Amino acid sequence: DLPSFFDWRRTTTTDRTSSLTNNIIPVIRDQNILHGTCWTFAAFASYESNWNLQLRQAGNTTDSAPYFSSRYLSWLTYELTLDNDPSTLQHFSPWGKTISTPDQIYSVGGTQQLVQAMLTRFGAVTNEQCPYSTGPMAGVDQVIAPTGLLHDMLGSFGNGNIHGYIKDNLAYYKELIKSYGALSMAMNPDW
Fold it and tell me: CA triplet 61, 65, 66: central angle to 5 degrees?
């Protein structure tokens, strides 16, 4: 049975009057209008909450919630590491956008499938290791040892009327949130 109220941000998830915590759902972060990195923020909100939930379920309540680097994920989705040589830019873009400066990499956009591929291949690093900036950002200069690698990912794809799809499957999505933490959802209005 699903509770009438459930919020991972609360110390007692079924009590709306309990205090707020960042133990499961991380703090809200600002991607800034300069960058098209919303897809990395959504992905990491889901990844971090599931990571935190698994830590708590394993009895680890001392570690602070990780804050993964959207900059690292954005860059490695479309570009190789600079390795201190900016002439090595490769510029992969599935949408055919012209990229002439490193900062433009952060405005290409992305999909959950790209997130899965990159987190499986490169893993996630913390924002302390590769800081995200609300101003112009350069490329990633080095491959940093990952904090965590993705090995499982649940996917649920609706097509057509997405609002109807979610409404018709609301109990399913509520159960996913209850079991795994935040969900990352995306849609492209041009499709």
Answer: 135
Write the CB contacts of 79 (distance below 8 Å, at least 6 apart in sequence).
89, 90, 91, 92, 102, 105, 139, 140
User: Once rounded to an integer, what is the mean pLDDT over residues 114-139?
Assistant: 82
User: What is the pTM for the complete model shown?
Assistant: 0.71
Question: What confidence tens digit (pLDDT) does each residue in 38-68 have?
Answer: 888 888 888 888 888 888 888 887 666 778 8
Handedness of CA 135, 141, 147, 153 (dihedral sign): positive
Q: What is the mean pLDDT of the chain?
A: 74
